């Protein structure tokens, strides 16, 4: 606390990212990173972009990347916004589309950055209860609101929602912007990107951090009606004209273009997820069916907090949230088959 | 305009960055980029960091870079914040330290992003008139205010202020944060970084975009009392935990460590600036004495707007601001000797 801070600064409760330990080499299953490296073509493109042109500003409109994404999604570049990770895009979207007059709605159990953004901009919000199995009920999103954020699949629950339910939410809220946060959509879910042309109130947010193994490059994208994209650009250009550096732009283009590598990596992550899910269920854990690159799991009699601590002692890092409703759960990112075998073996010893 | 925009979005007048033309190869003297490439060590470090670890998030605390910067400036890492360019740091600093209750003060002629930040966060501001030669008078910064932003050297005027004057402003405003924006300080000015230990209200902002030839990498830094740094971190961690990617972190560390290259490049830019300044004065331009990597110049009888357009037709891009008080001026970034010779030759033809 400092007398130089604004009231806002003093009032904030910032987001806490997952541990990035430096002290030892963990089996790192705590921040939903992809266990496989990015496309070799992306790495090569970055190495080539590391040249004398770094003295020049990057393209502030990120046009090349937007053109490649437009082609990939079957949209036009006017439908596409890119940012420094999907977190930055969400940080622009909240003030771009939401106001102090009506609350933003999002699920009670979800990405914990949503309420942080709301507080940063002084925007009211209401959380909508998920059911006992963490399902989102579209009918509950019919109350008056100033905008909606729905992650699909949800995090940390991994709960996936059929796109028909999202259509129901979009239909019931045509006057407000509905953000569908699809950070984890590539691991088996169906995207609502095809809805973009029908719903001018839909903004879909995705990222290269998970399914494209580029958490370290900081690139996310938003897809929506050109009016929404222009709204995002107005905020961005009041904040920082050049949010993506030349290396991120080059790497992202090459990554999106390498569809074969992308599909192969996702297939491997999904196969390992299904294997791991089956294995931890056999140990006695309840696991929510996942369409993401992580599992959300609980044991009927054992403490999640203690399992988390014991795993950490054994060099396996998973994520534990000491929060109401989910304090009995662990979130475990999908690693390689070897990493998951080590995790399952440790869990078997700890939990039996 | 869209019904989905917030009132804020509709009210914004975003910043307009200098042209990044794609249509042809210009002699590009319009965005104050450095004509020399970044340190070869920075390029090598980036190429080496383009590896499988890009699948992992970067260090959200940017510790390695902060340690290197602390060593460079003779401070501790707790005095240092890094961000996605100095623009992002300023975008965090405005809400971190300024409030709606009292106006922010900055010069009337200055970086046009300052009022944009203020509007983004709904913060009132007052501009303080510079004199006819664009000098900043410290005595005018004694009126009630909620914080001050002073660029030194100023942009686009290039006008440099002795640090004693900045001390006067700091002394007169001990209750508020004074941001000194030193984006151009390395081209011959004296930094106020040594004041950081004496003034808990001082935040110095610098960048790797200009003197380190890394505009394309997006790295800036702020130096100040640990309480101010913590304030910046509270805003940042309510916005985006990972603003610097792994490549930017690696490149920035190597760049800061290569002092020899840095000093050599700056010497060259300064020598070219002095030569160019003399040459354009001989043509009949009035040029403000510059401690930056650009010249701010006016001709007693010729239209700056027309010269700008004619230069552009000839493939030479400079910056023209069609704004009161400076509509007779051109801002010209310092290029290589060859580029400046071409610029001076063209100017001689146009303006005589």
Question: Nutshell version of this structure?
Answer:
2 copies of one chain form a homodimer. Chain A is α/β, with parallel strands linked by helices and 352 residues long.
Notable features of this structure?
Aspartate Aminotransferase, domain 2; homodimer; alpha/beta; Aspartate Aminotransferase, domain 1; 352 residues; 4-stranded antiparallel beta sheet; 37% helix
What does this structure look like?
Two copies of one chain form a homodimer. Chain A is α/β, with parallel strands linked by helices. Chain A has two domains: 116 residues, Aspartate Aminotransferase, domain 1 (Alpha-Beta Complex); 220 residues, Type I PLP-dependent aspartate aminotransferase-like (Major domain) (Aspartate Aminotransferase, domain 2). Helix content of chain A is 37%, strand content 14%. In chain A, the strands form three sheets. A seven-stranded mixed β-sheet of chain A has the order 2-8-7-6-5-3-4, sandwiched between helices. A four-stranded antiparallel β-sheet of chain A has the order 9-10-13-12, with helices on one face. In chain A, α4 packs across α5, α4 packs across α7 and α9 packs parallel to α11. The longest helix of chain A is centred in the last third of the chain and has 25 residues. The radius of gyration of chain A is 20 Å and the shape is globular. The model of chain A has no long low-confidence stretch (mean pLDDT 97). At the A-B interface, α1, α2, α4, α5 and α7 of A face α1, α2, α4, α5 and α7 of B.
